[in-house]
Design goal:
about 0% strand; transmembrane; 3 helices; membrane; mainly alpha; transmembrane helix
C-alpha cells in the first residue's frame, strides 16, 4: 500500500495551468518573428494573408513587450 498525500493531485493541475499560460505566451513571443522570417524569405506556405499580418509591426511590438515583461518577471527575483 502506497502512502498518498492529500495534495497529490496538485502536480497535474499545476502542469495544466502552466500549459494554459505558457503555450499562448510562447505563441505571442515567437510566432511574429517566425512569420517575419518567412515573409522576408518569400516562403509563405499557406494562409496567404496570415503570415504578413503576423509579421506586422503591431505583432512584433507586442512580442517585444511580452518578452520584456517575461524578462522582468524572471530577472527581478534574482537581483533581490
Amino acid at each position: 500500500m502506497s502512502n498518498h498525500h492529500w495534495n497529490d493531485w496538485a502536480g497535474g493541475l499545476t502542469l495544466v495551468l502552466q500549459a494554459i499560460v505558457y503555450i499562448p505566451l510562447l505563441y505571442i513571443l515567437l510566432m511574429p518573428w517566425f512569420c517575419l522570417a518567412l515573409v522576408k524569405l518569400g516562403k509563405i506556405p499557406f494562409f496567404p494573408g496570415f503570415f504578413q499580418a503576423m509579421a506586422s509591426t503591431g505583432w512584433l511590438v507586442a512580442s517585444g513587450l511580452v518578452g520584456l515583461v517575461v524578462l522582468f518577471v524572471v530577472v527581478r527575483p534574482l537581483v533581490r
